């Protein structure tokens, strides 16, 4: 498999203050893990800056301008209890959008089979008109819209295995049958959305997990609900909101996954992509806050994408 890996020093410029779980060290730890010899065939790319036009596929101009206006000249500025801006945040957020859109271009023009974008800030809590939950722009939602508009794909599936519900992605596509959004997440937990009754126009699939659930429940729910729905939907492209905070060691949640569960879900999604969309997968980092667990889980995820 030809697997792309996007990273960039700009992602480290988004500073969140001492003790914040969504910190630049997350990406440094991932980068270190991916220096191991088994990753020598990864195609390492430096993403372009995303454009305002790309961001506006999901977010209105006033959302972009409100974020720009709130960026401090120094130190950090809180947008809400946990969403933070620093002088480098605009650069990081646009670079993250640039990474996912470039990955869409490269995978859809068969320059690679799949891609992993090691980006921050994360995106899935960002609603079209609201930054929240560490997220400014909804990277994966933008990638989905970009793939539809620029590559004229009909059906795009987004699978979100972050331990939190991707309220922003759900909000972006709630009435849009051409995008399937399927999420597994701990409930009750932040942000409070993600009930199975939230079904959009039949294109939203929410699968709650409960505190203490392990890989057994996680795999059962995917096997019985999400994977069959993906097979029925037959996507032209599969996007992954890849959060690794359902790991047993994560400090922000209480689901008990281990690295092998991330290998399993990655392989299951690859099998579906192989069946319906020539293997096309773009995976973008969302959460994951225990540094060692995050790095080990990303390593397994990327290794599986590479087919090694
Ligand atoms: Zn999360």
Q: What does it look like?
A:
The structure is a single chain. The protein is 38% helix and 15% strand. It has helices spanning 25-33, 52-55, 61-70, 89-108, 139-151, 167-173, 215-233, 259-276, 291-306; strands spanning 3-6, 43-45, 77-78, 84-85, 114-117, 156-160, 179-186, 204-209, 237-242, 281-285. The longest helix is centred in the first third of the chain and has 20 residues, at 89-108. The protein has nine helices and ten strands. It starts with a strand and ends with a helix. Strand 9 (237-242), helix 8 and strand 10 (281-285) form a beta-alpha-beta unit. It has an eight-stranded parallel β-sheet with strand order 2-1-5-10-9-6-7-8, sandwiched between helices. Helix 1 (25-33) crosses helix 9 (291-306). With 308 residues, the protein is an alpha/beta fold. The site of zinc ion has 7 residues, from loops.
Helix and strand arrangement:
Elements: E1 3-6, H1 25-33, E2 43-45, H2 52-55, H3 61-70, E3 77-78, E4 84-85, H4 89-108, E5 114-117, H5 139-151, E6 156-160, H6 167-173, E7 179-186, E8 204-209, H7 215-233, E9 237-242, H8 259-276, E10 281-285, H9 291-306
Parallel strand pairs: 1-2, 1-5, 5-10, 6-7, 6-9, 7-8, 9-10
Antiparallel strand pairs: 3-4
The chain binds zinc ion.
């Amino acid at each position: 498999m030809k697997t792309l890996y996007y990273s960039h020093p700009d992602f480290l410029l988004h500073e969140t203050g001492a003790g914040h779980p969504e910190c630049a060290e997350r990406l440094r730890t991932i980068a270190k893990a991916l220096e191991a010899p088994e990753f020598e065939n990864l195609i390492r790319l430096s993403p372009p800056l995303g454009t305002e036009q790309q961001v506006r596929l999901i977010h209105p101009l006033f959302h972009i301008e409100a974020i720009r206006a709130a960026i401090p000249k120094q130190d950090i500025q809180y947008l809400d209890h946990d969403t933070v801006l620093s002088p480098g945040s605009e650069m990081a957020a646009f670079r993250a959008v640039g990474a996912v859109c470039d990955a869409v271009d490269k995978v859809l023009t068969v320059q690679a089979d799949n891609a992993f974008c090691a980006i921050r800030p994360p995106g899935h809590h960002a609603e079209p008109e609201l930054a929240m939950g560490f997220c400014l722009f909804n990277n994966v939602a933008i990638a989905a819209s970009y793939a539809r508009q620029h590559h004229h794909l009909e059906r795009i599936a987004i699978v979100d295995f972050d331990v939190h519900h991707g309220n922003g992605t759900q909000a972006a596509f709630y009435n849009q049958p051409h995008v399937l959004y399927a999420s597994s997440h701990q409930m009750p937990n932040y942000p409070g959305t993600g009930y199975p009754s939230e079904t959009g126009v039949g294109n939203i699939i929410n699968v709650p997990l409960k505190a203490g659930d392990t890989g057994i429940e996680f795999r059962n729910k995917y096997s019985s609900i999400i994977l069959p729905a993906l097979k029925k939907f037959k996507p032209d492209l599969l996007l992954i909101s890849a959060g690794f905070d359902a790991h047993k060691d994560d400090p922000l949640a209480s689901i008990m996954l281990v690295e092998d569960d991330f290998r399993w879900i990655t392989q299951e999604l690859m099998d579906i992509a192989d069946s319906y969309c020539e293997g096309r997968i773009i995976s973008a980092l969302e959460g994951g806050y225990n540094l060692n667990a995050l790095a080990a889980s990303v390593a397994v995820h990327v290794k599986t994408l590479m087919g090694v």
